[in-house]
Amino acid sequence: MKQPLIMTPGPTYVNESVRRALSHPITNPDLDPAFYDFYRETCQQLQRLLHTKNDVLLLDGEGILGLEAACASLIEPGDKILCIDNGIFGHGFADFVKMYGGEVTLYKVDYRNAIDMAQLTDFLREQHDFKAATLVHCETPSGITNPVDQICPLLKSYNILTILDSVSAMGGEPLLTDEWKVDIALGGSQKCLSSTPGLTIVSVSDAAWQTMKNRKTPIAGFYCNLSIWENWYENQWFPYTQPISDIYALREAVDQLLADQNALARHAQIANAVRETLTGSGLSLYPEGGFSNTVTTICIPEGISFTELHDEMLNSHQIMIGGAFDYLKGQVFRIGHMGENCYTEKVYLTMKALDAVLRNHQIPLSQPLHEVFVRLIA
Ligand SMILES: *Cc1c(COP(=O)(O)O)cnc(C)c1O
Predict the structure, then answer these.
(1) How close is the Cα of 185 to the center of ligand 1, in Å?
(2) All structural domains of the chain
(3) Ligand 1 centroid vs 66 CA: distance in angstroms?
(4) What is the pLDDT of residues 289-316, one digit of tens each?
(5) Which of 141, 254, 316, 358 has an alpha carbon within 20 to 30 A of 331's alpha carbon?
């Protein structure tokens, strides 16, 4: 089977050395002291990536598990929680908050722009009696990155715990967990880290641990209870058997990312060139501001449907692009230029195929997309 180039905003392309790591011989992760050390070093590598001294945990499930675990562990029935909502994931966070009894205040704003700091500052001045706030670093469906470097410190100035979904940003956008005062930062293995799907990365601040300790009610559930991880290394005790092969792969991916000094600059440069190429040729982006460096969301031009575009990209050019769900379904398509997808050659091939498919449907483009792209990236 010929593998398509997967240019979706996660899962992303997994490179060969990471796939090879999956096939390392396994040990019994519960009984092998060397594995506890390997695991701890893996968490330390992630601390470097997240610029944090906070504990970093790996949960055995895809990104969403982290969102739920943060809510389950920090929120008690009746707690007032602010959910910052400028997109589908921001909105969806409120469902997890409610599931664990939180009283949600939804701060719902413009879905085509990043969070406006002046507006949020005014809102918080009036209303700031919240135990915690949920927010999203990169709204993957709309392709918008929020100024979490400013939002998190602002929330903390009111003593509000910050729970940040950075699943589609971690590794592709700057993330200064400690400097920005992020209590819980959440990431997934399959987005910018370009490992296989199946692991969640969670950093937990002292304030977040303290909040768990001071709860009046016990944390409901087991898998979503972050406190079961306390002192796992000292006690040489995992709460459940670890998916050792997934962890080998993630470690390899994170080591590679850390060794690449240019990763963040490359994301910014490629994202910028993609946007300029598309808008300069007559296409429209979905966001009006706050453009993400990891994913670009483009309005489907008149004259083609998402299904036609997707199928033709895949069947005639072996390139898989993303669509969207919820209110954006059928309205936009997405190119994930994150992690291992974020290389000139792959994006060039994507632009070339997109150019061919759109022209095949008589959609006017003022210039050949791939030619403009290489010129911009040179
Ligand atoms: C991918 C992603 C998640 C994880 O959820 P899935 O849709 O199940 O992959 C969570 N938050 C954001 C912002 C994401 O992009």
Answers:
(1) 13
(2) 5-10+262-377 (3.90.1150.10), 16-259 (3.40.640.10)
(3) 10
(4) 999 999 999 999 999 999 999 999 999 9
(5) 316
